[in-house]
Amino acid sequence: MTTVEHIIADLALAESGRHQIRLAEQEMPGLMALREEFGDSQPLAGARIAGSLHMTTQTAVLIETLTALGAQVRWASCNIFSTQDDAAAAVVVGPGTFSAPSGVPVFAVKGETIREYWQYTDRILTWDGHDGPTIILDDGGDATLLVHEGVKAEKAGHVPPPLEEEDPAYNIEVEGMRHVLRASLEQDPTRFTRMAAGIVGVSEETTTGVHRLDQMHARGELLFPAINVNDSVTKSKFDNRYGIRHSLPDGINRATDVLMGGKVAFVAGYGDVGKGAAEALRGQGARVIVSEVDPICALQAAMDGYEVARIEDVVDRADFFITTTGNKDIIRVEHMAAMKDKAIVGNVGHFDNEIDMAGLARSGAKHQPIKPQVDEWTFADGHSVIILSEGRLLNLGNATGHPSFVMSTSFANQVLAQIELWVNLEAYPLGVHRLPKVLDEKVARSHLDALGVRLTELTEDQADYLGLPQHGPFKPDHYRY
Amino acid sequence: MTTVEHIIADLALAESGRHQIRLAEQEMPGLMALREEFGDSQPLAGARIAGSLHMTTQTAVLIETLTALGAQVRWASCNIFSTQDDAAAAVVVGPGTFSAPSGVPVFAVKGETIREYWQYTDRILTWDGHDGPTIILDDGGDATLLVHEGVKAEKAGHVPPPLEEEDPAYNIEVEGMRHVLRASLEQDPTRFTRMAAGIVGVSEETTTGVHRLDQMHARGELLFPAINVNDSVTKSKFDNRYGIRHSLPDGINRATDVLMGGKVAFVAGYGDVGKGAAEALRGQGARVIVSEVDPICALQAAMDGYEVARIEDVVDRADFFITTTGNKDIIRVEHMAAMKDKAIVGNVGHFDNEIDMAGLARSGAKHQPIKPQVDEWTFADGHSVIILSEGRLLNLGNATGHPSFVMSTSFANQVLAQIELWVNLEAYPLGVHRLPKVLDEKVARSHLDALGVRLTELTEDQADYLGLPQHGPFKPDHYRY
Amino acid sequence: MTTVEHIIADLALAESGRHQIRLAEQEMPGLMALREEFGDSQPLAGARIAGSLHMTTQTAVLIETLTALGAQVRWASCNIFSTQDDAAAAVVVGPGTFSAPSGVPVFAVKGETIREYWQYTDRILTWDGHDGPTIILDDGGDATLLVHEGVKAEKAGHVPPPLEEEDPAYNIEVEGMRHVLRASLEQDPTRFTRMAAGIVGVSEETTTGVHRLDQMHARGELLFPAINVNDSVTKSKFDNRYGIRHSLPDGINRATDVLMGGKVAFVAGYGDVGKGAAEALRGQGARVIVSEVDPICALQAAMDGYEVARIEDVVDRADFFITTTGNKDIIRVEHMAAMKDKAIVGNVGHFDNEIDMAGLARSGAKHQPIKPQVDEWTFADGHSVIILSEGRLLNLGNATGHPSFVMSTSFANQVLAQIELWVNLEAYPLGVHRLPKVLDEKVARSHLDALGVRLTELTEDQADYLGLPQHGPFKPDHYRY
Amino acid sequence: MTTVEHIIADLALAESGRHQIRLAEQEMPGLMALREEFGDSQPLAGARIAGSLHMTTQTAVLIETLTALGAQVRWASCNIFSTQDDAAAAVVVGPGTFSAPSGVPVFAVKGETIREYWQYTDRILTWDGHDGPTIILDDGGDATLLVHEGVKAEKAGHVPPPLEEEDPAYNIEVEGMRHVLRASLEQDPTRFTRMAAGIVGVSEETTTGVHRLDQMHARGELLFPAINVNDSVTKSKFDNRYGIRHSLPDGINRATDVLMGGKVAFVAGYGDVGKGAAEALRGQGARVIVSEVDPICALQAAMDGYEVARIEDVVDRADFFITTTGNKDIIRVEHMAAMKDKAIVGNVGHFDNEIDMAGLARSGAKHQPIKPQVDEWTFADGHSVIILSEGRLLNLGNATGHPSFVMSTSFANQVLAQIELWVNLEAYPLGVHRLPKVLDEKVARSHLDALGVRLTELTEDQADYLGLPQHGPFKPDHYRY
Fold first, then answer.
1. Are B325 and B349 spatial neighbours (Cβ–Cβ below 8 Å)?
2. Is D246 close to A264, i.e. CB distance below 8 A?
3. pTM as predicted
4. Which of D237, D242, D259 to substitute to test the interface with A, most A CBs within 10 Å?
5. Which of A14, C238, D17, D83 could, after both became Cys, cross-link D110 (CB 3.0–4.6 A)?
6. What residues of A are in the D interface, CB distance below 8 Å?
7. Distance separating alpha carbons of residues C399 and C255, to the nearest angstrom
8. What is the pLDDT of residues A289-313, one digit of tens each?
9. Is A292 within any annotated ligand binding site?
10. Given B262, B282, B302, which is nearest D262 (Cβ)?
11. Is the ipTM of this complex over 0.85?
12. Would you give the DSSP letter of residue C393?
């Protein structure tokens, strides 16, 4: 914990973070509009929110929006590398005075260990004078998982003993979590059970987290209602597509400075992320070749003017290879072995196994770091490939991820989900829910002014003609946008 | 009926239609693939299909696909203007020999009257030796309506007497339908009741028709299951968007020959049709301004780089005004009165009331036809506007509508829906259903070869990793593409 | 000549032409601005202009601009097929009253014979009470050629005798011209010599005409100064590029109704015409492959995101083949024999020999007309290609050519060239000249308002800093735009 | 000079530079092709080249190409900030061994003083055992200027005495140069005169340098022939346009991380740089508004689909302001005072006076650095603007300038110009020349393979038909591409 404390004492860091937060606020009109709308009514008064989500500048604006709406908040990051220490420090110090920290407790530091990670996650669930938080705000589902596993452990009365690293069943994440559970069980054998009873719900940011929640619910194990923020239109169709359109070329540029114009770029996948990637590369004058397994997305790619091919058929033609699939083994060693010399290979999909990094390490290719997050791997025949961010998300590893404006649409959904769970809980029985379309539209609406958009309003007569409420929602749930 | 008979005797027409059909087949790979796949197994053997859908060249390929799969078919158009007489004649004559017409009975002629229209609709429901068809293929729902109203009339034992045109309740469509019902009731007072009992279901092409079906079902009046073809991804996201991208500039060009490049084009609505319209106009070098009532679509338009404004704020800046909304009164007389001289105004949305043509006629503006489907209306101050297709769909009125390839995706869904109703009926209880995603993907798949697309295949291992069937379907139902 | 007279008596034709002219005026702001600027000062007063240029609606606006500036005008078309009879009739009748034709004598009718063509060209050089015109406005150079050949014939004292069609040296164009010269020499053996002496210059529209002038001048035979209008920026960079961007997809659509989106389009040549063609096809969602012989243009195409390949390497992949080169034998029979079934082949370059139509006719491929200007040629293996406009310019043959706005930039250059020759002749000694950049900029300037462009003005201080005149010209002559 | 020596002793720097050079070689196919073609024949053998051009990684590849062709080279940077020390060190150490520096003497260090700058320039003109270099390779013309001023000073026999900084005539650049001249005159009063006599010519990279050369030649002062590399097509139409397309969004991203999509971007100027800037911003989903003083460029911008307006009319609508003009006072304090809060302002044109930074400093706006090269200036009303790179070239200041591939086209022209001056001097009499088109085409040709371009070749018959050499050059000199 000392690292965290060290950081929060660093006022220079906090000051730099405060600058970044101020600039980001300008670019997060959705969150600022929610402060404006709900600042007086304090809908989150009384709520204790445990947040687990990348501790960045944008998240700082989210956190301070939650507190501005009346909530008490504790925060951890959902990834050991993604914390921006200056943002963390600024949140701890708070928006008021630097001399007397009055902000939100943050348990996150860039480069924390896995063991620390689970300890920090435990810390956000620990509230003096209370059994725990009342709502969880989750990204990937680790905080939710810890509560559920805690309840299970308390029911079972024990936690499996630690494994040695050599043990084939050893999983560093599982060990980190069990370490925390073991200590909790020892100290207070009903803590998680009481805590779960006091939690009204969770709002989840990601596909992965939603997938976990769906599975828990299917198994009948879900302990409280969940809101799936990921599938709001203003999340999935904005963050995924327009975020990548921005951050993919940014990452490539910062990593390599190599011209994209006139080159051939291979994009694996034409979902929302792939659509944004292809658009960005074309916008830089590259010729994009798409691969797809889904015939509908493949047909879309073709109709949008892209060549659609298999990687093995074009592997010797492309200069850039970008994976966007969420699947594994998209780019394999045999592909890299057949690429042009100095082909650039990166991932903006999900996990680092989209590119077979493990296979590459085993392949005998010679590894030469070029600069942080940029590595050259040279094959026996002398040709090399340039791997960005070791196969992890290059837009985060080589650049700074999605810009604030795009995160504002995602995070406004998070805030609305938190309000729904706190003041409108009866609408969300045990299960996994999407936000009602009217809130999705509200999020969109709050971002229009900043872009100079003037919305047309339906007349009463027109609304009657269409059989729609005059002020929305305007579309059936299955509408695809 | 003499007009129809006159046409089918015209072998020159039929020959020209046959040429067009042959060229269209090349561009409708989805339908041709279904002929290939199901030609031997004849899944529609025994089915009697009553089709009501624009009688064009593309529809001819659809009809001949249905017969190639074993069905017996009778056809009418769903619009009094949309029939292409040469295609109709060719379908009647059939693909075999011209001397002995062996094709499908078609009851449709360009410019038929409303009364004829309902008589023709009645004719497709009349099958010698049977109570009626076994399946309906509908566009807009008129054939389905006639059956439902027939059953009601037979229950009631009478049809309301005809109204005079002067009567304020007079509706020419309703009168046309009642005229037919009255004759039927007189001749055979249980005909529609027996017919409905023999109909296994209907597949519906359009939003409007689906809306009617939903309402019937909500009222408990629906007599047989319905499949909503409109909301297949390969229909709504292809026909609507890519069809308009093609046919909007085509219509403007044929109507006016006016340069789009460098001009300002106002597009009302940013749904799928609006997206296609905006893309087409931008692709010609126009600067596009979009209007929207839905904040999500408005935000999409902005993120796609378009100005989003209200019509009243830009009415004096635009050179083209295109409506795509499905709503009414989008462009009103006060707007047209304020436009630049010779502004071009057209609709690709739905009904002609998107542009207030009735108001324009009452406004005192002077009407001057320029050429068929192109009219100039001059206001008192001397400026004029150019109205395309009298406010009706300009891509049909001034050009030839969507190209065959796009219709192939829509119509392949229709054929699959017909097969589902005929051989897999138990999956479709009374109600309004969408086609299963696996069929949507099948439709997409059948159009890939023609575009040179080579699809990637999931390995078993990858499919397991994703928890998906190896050959699809690949996405959850709420996926938005 | 009777055909022409027949036309001009047809008031319905004239009325239709007048409508078209009125609408075109709206789209030709450059010409209208010149009427506005020079209507009072009448700079062309006293000029007798012999014009030889496609007699279309746009040309009618040009002609009436010349007369509005004080000129007397006589007109012929420069192509036997390109006359729009209604426009011709309207020009003859004149803008005033229909009962008393008061317009400009026009000698042109759609489908005139070659012999008539040369007689009509002779007629525009024949001015009652004068030796001939004072200025020529030429397109392709035939009027200029006739004068030069006339002078030569008068010097020689004879014209070669007519050849029989069977004679290998027979050239129908040359025979047509000699027929006219022979008659003139007989009637007045010094007519062309006196005429040439009275001509102050010629302004030439096209690359081909400029090439002829350059050659005449190189041989020392040029009789009067010439202005090369073709190479004004506002001609070559606008007409060629933006005109084709408009009229190429228009021609393809009207000819075939085939979807371009998702298809592969091969464009031969990436000059200004090729650039416009590629942009238009991409704007419709096609994937464009370019071929080039010039490495600079090839590199531009690549940097603009197009695949650059040879036709033989992609001939079996493309759905559309468009030639834009000005060269011959671009698409040869061996290519067409290897294309996909029903590939569409057309030319927007120059002459019909870009596609080897003669070779195709000799190849044994079976010819089947589909509709006017659309022909199917079927090879022995059963696959066919669709040829547009028999290999001639498809944007003219299948659509209506460049739109008025684009022609307005070209024709404003023509009018300014005529004024320069008439009032500023000393600036143009014997030779072939381009218009000064200040006039090129003037043409551009006169088209800005219509597009809503507001130009920024240099301050005096800024102009001094740049060492430029405050109001232009702004660029050195070699600037490439 | 110690700084320079310090650097070259830093082997870690040199090693890092060598890595960068190796990667850049891959992206500079034009230079590598020249090594391949001329490596054996050594056309630059005997040449002593004095180079003054930004000492970057790309320049390192240029330098090592010159030596590979036989030249001896000495190098300085043409800008006190642009040196990349690692590249400089690597060039000094040479491609061979690190222990015994065997490379090219480089006199440049990032952040050198103005006085050092002129001393370094003097050093590249100083060759042991010779009167000076035989050729100059210049960027901006300072090396050439120094020689010309040296000759003048030697003629005059004196250099004006140094001025005090307070003197209104004081110019730090002029003082730096005179300091060097004074020392030279003292030591060797005919040094520059002898040196100039031995220089066969100069090749110049930039518009500014060419402008100086044109003026010298107009005044009759030019001492040796000059080749204008700037106006090769493969320089001005590639470096300017495609370079900025790449490096503008890169600079904005690294500086601000602010989303461009959906925002309004104002671009001053639509020359080649402006065209590239507008394309890049549109490619990121921004809506671009262009300003222009030249009506031809303004019309191009409109035809390319951009709004064209004056800054004062849109200053409160734009989120980004980018200058590309080469002019001064484009964005003035009154504009910045009227911008939206946190508008981002940057320059990619030329000098920092495109944005009135001096006026801003005087305006009373409060300056707050955000991070290096990113500054916030807050006006009295509370709104602020973000200035990138203090108004200097943001693509260099906030990112890394043009990518290697684009510089390869520029630098290949430089190498060819050096060869022309050394082996083909008789073709270049005293004056300022452009490279012959055949060399421009050669440069383009050498970049095609890397982009997968396969060039079509004219047949002899086609070349005859066009009247062109079969292998180029293909276009007249005035062709605009």
1. yes
2. no
3. 0.95
4. D259
5. D83
6. 19, 23, 26-27, 242, 245-246, 249-250, 253-254, 257-264, 279-280, 282-285, 317, 341-342, 370, 399-400, 403-406, 451-452
7. 8
8. 999 999 999 999 999 999 999 999 9
9. yes
10. B302
11. yes
12. B
